Amino acid sequence: MKYRNLFLSIVLGCSTSLCAQNASSAKETSGNPIFEGWYADPEGVVFNKEYWVYPTYSAPYDEQIFMDAFSSTDLVNWKKHPRVIEKENISWLRRALWAPAVVQENGKYYLFFGANDIQNNNELGGIGVAVADNPAGPFKDALGKPLIDKIINGAQPIDQYVFKDDDGQYYMYYGGWRHCNMVKMAPDLLSIVPFEDGTMYKEVTPENYVEGPFMLKRKGKYYFMWSEGGWGGPDYCVAYAIADSPFGPFKRVGKILEQDLSVAVGAGHHSLVKGRGKDEWYIIYHRRPLGETAANSRETCIDRLYFDKDGYIKPVKMTFEGVKASPLKKSR
Ligand code: FUB
């Protein structure tokens, strides 16, 4: 191997590390998964013209006590940022650190997470928020306790998505166990405030909803998306609704992502990021490779997502190739 590399270096006229760099920049597509390891529930987001993905570490619940993040300038080459949040920084975390949602606001980064997989209102856990000065962390729990710690309207407090409307108002959509609530965030993003009608929690559950809500505003419409089916099985999938308001009603239109027996099963719990083009969208989601049956064998993938001319979302074609580069920064 040593002599083969030396030979290649001489022929190509480059040092081994330079060759490795060239090989990486020559990669034409991201491939799927976009990074190695079992990772689920990926939150894709753009910070400072870089793509970031924050997934759940997909493992037995007692081992889910940290999160890694990944960043990319082009969607093709990904850099791992290990342990951007971990047990030492959340005093009340015991297990099941799940499904991050990350936003940049007030000069800081806020990472919302689900923890402890509570089964009733006597258990300590729910949705928490951690803050950092840098998207790579370290994120530290801001409250010393959960932000939402009760099962309200039947919704397990997990799987939050934090959405900023055009007027600057943040809302959080969240919920497992087939129920979805929304709450209104205070400007500090560390507390929730009542809606105009005085209520704190609004149930907005669409038909077939199970968990994993996501919201996108595009061309004045609110695209609300969620996961259906059981995450441990092959039928897990993503569906959506289109509304004129962030409050809904969210009338189910149809599925946009589901298993493809020639590619993978259990595809769901997604997010969307916008590329450099005017209406260029990517779906980042997890799926289970063919032949894998363990619930936690989930990998993070990316594919293109297209809207049709009437504004409906076309079903996603899952691929092994992934996507081509879409750098947001001008190359120097
Ligand atoms: O990864 C843990 C859980 O799996 C998430 O919270 C669910 O949405 C499911 O994807």
From TrEMBL:
CDD domains named among the record's database cross-references: GH43_XlnD-like
UniProt entry keywords in alphabetical sequence: Carbohydrate metabolism, Glycosidase, Hydrolase, Polysaccharide degradation, Signal, Xylan degradation
GO biological process: xylan catabolic process
Site (Important for catalytic activity, responsible for pKa modulation of the active site Glu and correct orientation of both the proton donor and substrate): D159
Pfam families reported in the protein's UniProt record: Glyco_hydro_43
GO molecular function, one term: hydrolase activity, hydrolyzing O-glycosyl compounds
Signal peptide: 1-20
Domain of life, source organism: Bacteria
Gene3D superfamilies for the chain: Glycosyl hydrolase domain, family 43 (2.115.10.20)
SUPFAM superfamilies, A to Z: Arabinanase/levansucrase/invertase (SSF75005)
Family affiliation: Belongs to the glycosyl hydrolase 43 family.
Name the UniProt record assigns to this protein: Arabinan endo-1,5-alpha-L-arabinosidase
Lineage: Bacteria, Pseudomonadati, Bacteroidota, Bacteroidia, Bacteroidales
